[in-house]
tRNA (guanine(9)-N1)-methyltransferase (Serpula lacrymans var. lacrymans), 380 residues
Amino acid sequence: MDSQVTSFSPPSVAEENTGGQTGDNQGDVVHLIDSADKEPEQEPLSKKARKKAAKAAYLASVKLERRAREKEAKKRKKQAERERKMAQGEVGDGKSSAEASSGPGERRRKRRKLGQGDEGEGVNVFAAKVVVDLGFDELMSEKEITSLTSQLAYTYSANRHAARPFSGLIFSSLGGRTRTRLDAMNDAGYRRWIGTEWWEEGYERLWTDGDIVKEQNSVEGDGSLETPGLPEHLPEKKTEKEVDDARESVVYLTADSVDELEELKEGETYIIGGICDHNRYKNLCLNKASESKIRHARLPIGRYIASLTTRKVLTVNQVFEILVKWVEGRDWEEAFWSVIPRRKFQNGAERDEENKGVDGGGDAEGKGDGGHEVEEALDG
C-alpha cells in the first residue's frame, strides 16, 4: 500500500495573527504592525526644562574653554622651563637632560655638535680656546656671585649653539662660593655641560701643566703599568721654551690695556675675567695679566661704534658672544651691534656706516664685569 506524502507550509505571520484569514483583514494587520513601529511624538519641553538644558550646555562650553586655557598655560610653562634649562645648558633642541643622555647615539650627536665626533663628522670649530677666570670669588657679594653663575650658563649656551664654536671653553680657579652656587643650581648641571673643562687650578695651568708621553724603556714584550716597555702618560714639567711659547699664545682681555685686539687667531687662548664688580677694581685684570707675564688687549668697541655715548657694563656672556659673532662674520662692528642692546645708546643712535672700520677717535673700550665695560666714546 503506497503511502501518501502531504507537503506542509507554515502559515505566515499575518496568517498566524489572524487565524489564517486573508484578504482585506490581512491588510488591516499590516497597518497595525506599522503603527506599532513608529515612536510616539515627544511632548514639548517645559520652560523649566528648557532653562535647565540651556544651563547645562553653557556649563559644558565653559568647561571646554577652561580646559583649553589650562592646556595653553601648561604648554607655555613647559616651554619656559625648557628655555630656562637650555639657558642653563642642561638640555638642547628641546630635550630634557635625561633624554639628551639616553643613549650613545645621542651622546655622539652632542659631541659632533662641538666638533668632538668622529673625523669628518664634526662641525667647523674655531681652533682657539676661551678661559673664564673665576679667581675673584672673594671680591664679590652674594648677589654678584649669583649673577656671575647665570652668566656662565649663558656663555656655555652661546658656544654650544654657535655656528662656529670655540674648540675649548675652560673655567679656571673654580672654588669658594662660586662653586657652591653652581653645585646648587639644577643639581650641579654644569658638570654635564658638553665640551667644557672645569679647573680648580688657575689659568696658569695653560703653560705649566701638560701630559707628555715618555718612553721609559725600549724593552720588547708584554707590558703593563707595573712593567717596563709600556709608554706611560706622565705629567712632566715643560721646558722653559715650551712654557714661553705656551704663555705667548694667551691673551687676557681687559679694557685697561693700551693694546687693542685686532683679530682672533686660531691656536690662541683668550681669557675673560669672571667677576661682577661694576668696575670697582681698576686695573684688576691688567695687573693679573702683567704678573702672569702674558699678553693683554682690549676689545675695539670705540673704533667701530663712535655713536656710543654711555658707560655701560657688559656681562661675561656678552663679551663671549661678541667673540663668537666676530668668528662667524669677522666684523667687529657687526659683532658689537648684534650683542650690545640698543637701549644702551642715547636717543636710539643708529650706526654710522661712514665710520665703519675707521678709528672713531675715542677711547671706548670693551670691558665686561670682569674687565670688559663699554666706556664713553670721546671725540678726539
Q: What stands out?
A: The domain at 126-208+237-344 is CATH 3.40.1280.30 (Alpha/beta knot).
